[in-house]
Amino acid sequence: MKTDAVGCKQFGFTLLELLVVMVIIGLLAGYVGPKYFAQIGKSETKTAKAQIEALSRALDTYRLDTGHYPATEQGLAALNRQPNGEAKWQGPYLAKGVPADPWGRPYLYRYPGEHGDYDVWTFGSDGAAGGQDADADVGSW
């Protein structure tokens, strides 16, 4: 707090004080920012795993009703639209339809699967096979 020539009290910060606060905020942002954005990639992968589990449960229910999984050509759309000639279909098996993966692409489906009865997967954030961390493939196996 300073006083002027008349004796009035003046409140405020000096330029040096403001610069010190700005440097501290910059250091904190430089430390916290990368850790925060790394968590975003992890949450998308967790979301993909949860969606694949939900799709797997719907596929298993489809199989209980019809006696088989949808063909690769029918794809995951068979969970919400009755395939031609499928009299035992009792869907829809997903309340809100087949979701896109967290990166906005459709999930991939194959029956019979290479890793199990069927395969449901996504290629991760890079959209290409393989990868690590957020770029890693996420599958039902």
From TrEMBL:
Transmembrane parts of this sequence: 12-32
Major subcellular site: membrane
Compartment(s): Cell inner membrane
GO biological process: protein secretion by the type II secretion system
SUPFAM superfamilies named in the record: Pili subunits (SSF54523)
InterPro entries: Bac_GSPG_pilin (IPR000983), N_methyl_site (IPR012902), Pilin-like (IPR045584), T2SS_protein-GspG_C (IPR013545), Type2_sec_GspG (IPR010054)
Pfam families: N_methyl (PF07963), T2SSG (PF08334)
Membrane topology listed for this record: Single-pass membrane protein
Key word NADP present: no
Family, per entry: Belongs to the GSP G family.
PANTHER family in UniProt: GENERAL SECRETION PATHWAY PROTEIN G (PTHR30093), TYPE II SECRETION SYSTEM CORE PROTEIN G (PTHR30093:SF45)
Name of the protein this chain belongs to: Type II secretion system core protein G
